[in-house]
Amino acid sequence: MSIVRSSKFRHVFGTPAPTNKGCFLGMKTGGSGDSNCAVSANFLAMVKTSKVFIVPLDEAGRKEENNMPFIDGRCIIWDLQWSPFNDNVIAVSDDRGDVKVYLIPDGGLTETITKPYWQLTNVHQKKVTFLQWHPTAEYILLSGGADNMIVIWHTEAQRHVMTFNFPESLCSASWNYNGSLFAATYTENKKTCLRIIDPRSQEIKIENNECYPGVKVSKCVFLENGNLITVGFDRQANRRMNLWLKSDDYQKSVCEMDLGNSSGVLLPYYDPDLNMLYTVIKGETVVKYYEIVDSKICFLSSYGSTNTQKGGNILPKRAVDYMSNEVARFYKLDDKKCEPIKFVVPRKSELFQSDLFPDCNNDEAALTAQEWLGGKDADPRKMEFNAGGGDTCGSREAKTEPKMMSKPMTKSLPRSSQRPISTASALTQETNSYHPVHSVTEGNDFKELMEDMKKVKATVRKLNKGVSKLEEQLEEKNNAVQEHEEEEEEEEEEEEE
Fold first, then answer.
1. Is residue 81 classed as helix, strand or coil in its secondary structure?
2. Which of 361, 393, 426 is the last residue of a domain?
3. For residue 74, which of 40, 51, 58 has the smallest C-alpha distance?
4. I need a surface site. Which of 42, 261, 269, 465 has the fewest CB within 10 A?
5. What's the pLDDT score for residue 429?
């Protein structure tokens, strides 16, 4: 007798957006990187060789590519990532070894951009293949390149603060939940290896030299509890997905899944709130999703379509339509369009489902760059879904600097200021000596804007709480009416008898 594992996500299903109204049409996109696409709560970014098209999420439909403004990278784009703390800031890497940060105006681009807001150069010697923003600290960005080097940047200061070299081909990297460590996969001696590194002490905490016997591209993803998922290949070129426990120092896999012999690049997307993992393979037509339970990776289901995917990315959790029980939204890039796919948990009730939507990461950094570089750690700040985005992490000391991107430096930093820093004390000294300059007008305008936003958010929270109370009262009344009707039916049956 087979026993089906019980899970509230077992019936999750994917629903594509209507082609003419919900998809982004008319742009033949595609690049040399993995995802070729990035999504913030405001914008969709799509790569076409050296161009990046930026489209507001609420402006789906057919576009005229020749008439659209874009970001002109001037060389082949390899990766792009939106900042988790500013939905208008995007980092782009290219094949010259440069990382550029652009600021997108509200409403989208009105003209083609050729100059970045910040430019991070003179460190990588070859193409930069992947980027990762820090999960809790503002202005901290990790980049990895074909020169087998990982660089950590202070983007606002436009300089690098740490570098890490690897023996052979560098494949991927992933920050842990609070950004105190990062994991990296690479190849050495015809094997795929794994390192866990403390970036501020520049210490290799753990090393696994026999992660996979194959040398094809591998990926790693840190889980919220500190465990790690990796994807790689065995000697027969079969793709494997493994779960490694923090308690075992990531030396022994406790769960392994066979993902077939596809050679396409696999893109993993992890939801730390629900402990779900979504996987996409370039060149295939299927999106698969899993649930991580204790020390197991449990396959849930898959969504299939007819068009092969050239890339894609997932929407930030705080932007999903939670009242329709949408737990994730994937933007799939193919030859003809970018197609949003909503993943929904079916429920009979139309009320807010709190078990599906625990507090998720909000768009406010828990730490400044100086605090993190000085050795401080903090978990991501959270927001509630059913309370209009209220902060539930408690109060934090107000920042002395306004939460606004400072004006970029017009002069390049001297070569001596771009040397890597090796100790936490040195990091503290150098970062404390840097003071971004803001104009008085910008600061005052921004403070007024922030006060207005706080008032609006407070009003929204009150309205949402009022709606929640009304829904609860309505449900109680419905239950009371139903009980009363049942009692009347029972009395009528007794009278008839």
1. strand
2. 361
3. 51
4. 261
5. 43
